[in-house]
Structure of DNA-binding transcriptional activator GutM:
Amino acid sequence: MQNITNSLIIVAIIAWLLQIILGWRQLSQFNKEFEKLCKQGNVGVGRTQGRFKPKVVIAIAFDQDYRVVNAIILKGLSVFSRAKTITTLKGLLHSEIIPELIFPKDKQSQQALKEALQLR
């Protein structure tokens, strides 16, 4: 019985360490993409909250005319999610972006996009 308990504790510790390592890797990859955006113009970032729903982070780079230069989205529940380019936003003016049209069936992405458009 003690061997089973020790084995479970070891497995839990390994899983926890793996989660930390993979989470760090995901964050560092997103930060590299974010740094690229920051070099392209003013950046707005939006994110959603939620414990059991896929979290969404959207970052948008605007030029001096408020036209989208580039945009990325990170969406998912796991550390295996990767940042992807949102090609539908490229070239649009800030005033032309309607989140409900960009993500018609995805409320989480709509909310993150609305927050990113506030350019805090």
The first strand starts at residue 42 and ends at 47. The chain has one domain: 2-116. The chain has a mean pLDDT of 92. DSSP finds three helices and four strands in the chain.
